[in-house]
From TrEMBL:
<protein>
    <submittedName>
        <fullName>Glutathione S-transferase</fullName>
        <ecNumber>2.5.1.18</ecNumber>
    </submittedName>
</protein>
<feature type="domain" description="GST N-terminal">
    <location>
        <begin position="1"/>
        <end position="80"/>
    </location>
</feature>
<dbReference type="InterPro" id="IPR040079">
    <property type="entry name" value="Glutathione_S-Trfase"/>
</dbReference>
<dbReference type="InterPro" id="IPR036249">
    <property type="entry name" value="Thioredoxin-like_sf"/>
</dbReference>
<dbReference type="InterPro" id="IPR004046">
    <property type="entry name" value="GST_C"/>
</dbReference>
<keyword id="KW-0808">Transferase</keyword>
<dbReference type="Pfam" id="PF00043">
    <property type="entry name" value="GST_C"/>
</dbReference>
<dbReference type="Pfam" id="PF13409">
    <property type="entry name" value="GST_N_2"/>
</dbReference>
<dbReference type="InterPro" id="IPR004045">
    <property type="entry name" value="Glutathione_S-Trfase_N"/>
</dbReference>
<dbReference type="GO" id="GO:0004364">
    <property type="term" value="F:glutathione transferase activity"/>
</dbReference>
<feature type="domain" description="GST C-terminal">
    <location>
        <begin position="86"/>
        <end position="208"/>
    </location>
</feature>
<dbReference type="InterPro" id="IPR010987">
    <property type="entry name" value="Glutathione-S-Trfase_C-like"/>
</dbReference>
<dbReference type="InterPro" id="IPR036282">
    <property type="entry name" value="Glutathione-S-Trfase_C_sf"/>
</dbReference>
């Protein structure tokens, strides 16, 4: 049994979605970001970074969304959402996971939290936007040439991660779904039954 500390629509979304997709027993524990629950001592004892998600695994708190997503897929290989270590596609899978966190998640964090940098918020957002749009261009080209998923015909955790990050661009001047291959990809991922369950449980409606 896993326990997920989450806040709707945030970086916990991919972990929640995977728990649903893999049909893994779990309990949800809400973290109210507006009430700053994530900065309280009890939560910081679980996750000293003071961010969501945190996943309780075998009684121990673990964090970092991408690491958690990869861990769940490796621990439950029957779900088939990650190439095993000896699989030739493993290197490509690792590449996309790290690429997603470095080239898309990092600037998206700045877009949503420009005050992370002690600089002019508008300038931070503009810089983040340029990096996000350049990354979208590359992901769109990858899907155009080698889709329909990041590993071609094979669905993996990387696709769930990409979908979550695409969702975060929905209020940007040019949202990721505006790129044609990314848009088609998002439709494919959103059509998964687990996505509707996720939305219902997190009380989400935007970008449905
Ligand atoms: N690198 C972390 C980042 C998590 C993160 O940025 N979470 C955001 C929500 S998407 C958060 O907790 N924000 C509250 C805050 O920073 O005060 C991860 O991927 O788990």
């Amino acid at each position: 049994m896993y326990a997920l500390y989450y806040s709707p629509g945030t970086a916990s979304l991919v972990v929640h979605w995977l728990l649903i997709e893999m049909d893994l027993a779990h309990e949800l524990r809400t973290v109210d970001i507006d009430a700053r629950d994530h900065k309280r001592a009890e939560y910081l004892a679980l996750n000293p970074n003071g961010v969501v998600p945190t996943l309780i695994v075998d009684g121990e708190p673990r964090y970092e969304a991408a690491a958690l997503a990869m861990y769940l897929a490796d621990r439950h290989p029957e779900a088939g959402l990650a190439p095993e270590v000896a699989d030739p596609q493993r290197a490509q899978y690792n590449q996309w996971m790290f690429n997603l966190t470095n080239t898309l998640q990092a600037p998206l964090r700045l877009w949503w939290y420009p005050s992370d940098l002690q600089a002019d918020d508008e300038a931070v957002r503009l810089g983040a936007q340029a990096r996000i749009e350049a990354a979208c261009e590359r992901f769109d080209a990858q899907l155009a040439q080698h889709g329909p998923y990041l590993l071609g015909e094979r669905l993996s955790v990387a696709d769930f991660y990409l979908t979550m990050l695409m969702r975060w661009t929905r209020k940007m001047p040019r949202p990721a779904h505006d790129w044609p291959h990314l848009g088609a990809f998002a439709q494919r991922m959103k059509a998964r039954p687990g996505f509707a369950t996720l939305y219902q449980r997190e009380g989400l409606s935007e970008w449905a």
